From TrEMBL:
GO terms for cellular component: cytoplasm. CDD domains: TRAPPC2_sedlin. SUPFAM superfamilies: SNARE-like (SSF64356). GO terms for biological process: endoplasmic reticulum to Golgi vesicle-mediated transport. Gene3D superfamilies: 3.30.450.70. This is Sedlin.
Length: 141
């Protein structure tokens, strides 16, 4: 299983992106997207933003679950209170581990926001942030 994760800012700009594979069931954590699929991942996530904007006003929870599908891929979404969108492209229906992953990443993102040198919608380039996102992915996905 492969995953593509992105954090989208309030201006629909990508703040952070990464891809990884599963570490569960003997996986090695390396993303194995088909070569023709890899360039489409970012497009699929950004095309789901319109649906996220519709669904966010209907549901009261921050975890919106699966909001869009493209062929055999699903897009899951988690919203922060500041309208930052956490999007995950995946090919399996595993709701609870995805929710736990989003919760951990949201906590790391909140800690990043508390940094006085970080401004909302600024690209996250911290290697520590990346390591913590990948650790959460390894733990839950």
């Amino acid at each position: 299983m492969s995953f593509y994760f992105a954090i989208i800012g309030t201006k629909d700009n990508p703040i952070y992106e990464c891809e990884f594979g599963t570490s569960k069931q003997g996986g090695d954590g390396i993303a194995r997207w088909p070569e023709d699929q890899r360039p489409m991942n970012q497009f699929i996530l950004h095309s789901a933003l319109d649906i996220v904007e519709e669904v966010q006003w209907v549901q009261r929870e921050l975890y919106l679950k699966t909001v869009d599908r493209f062929n055999n891929l699903m897009v899951s979404c988690f919203l922060s209170a500041g309208n930052i969108k956490f999007l995950l492209l995946h090919d399996t229906k595993i709701e609870d581990p995805i929710r736990q992953f989003f919760t951990d990443v949201h906590e790391v993102y909140i800690k990043t926001l508390m940094n006085p040198f970080y401004e909302v919608d600024m690209r996250i380039t911290s290697m520590v942030f990346d390591a913590r996102v990948r650790a959460a992915a390894k733990k839950y996905l």
